[in-house]
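Task card 7
Instruction: Convert sequence to structure tokens.
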Amino acid sequence: MPVSARFHELRDKVLAAVDDKFAEPVRLSFLTKAGGPVDPTRPAIEIEAVLRVGEGKNTSVAGSRDAGWRTRIVADKAQLHIDRTTYAGPQPKQGDKVKALSRWGEPWFEVADVDDRSHTRIVLNLNEA
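Output:
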């Protein structure tokens, strides 16, 4: 555990206020490898965290000057922001899964990569699963 800085108390209050308004329940399922079986050393857990999913920005890609060659690509970016100070679960890794428990259809996401360098949040960059 790192040494406490003067601003940590304020940081923790701000994170708690944000999570109080924006966090939602999610299930973290830890796998041995991407698409692999469940990792028995890291059991699944349910937590509350801030899940942000992009609005589905449509981008036109031209294969030629002919409009008939155009296709649309949906580029959704998703991130899960976990409060580092309250999270007690295993370290998430690339290939793990996240299930949005309070969203219609309970969609699954796959962890593309993990940014754990921030002192406030563990950020999981997600893809649709």
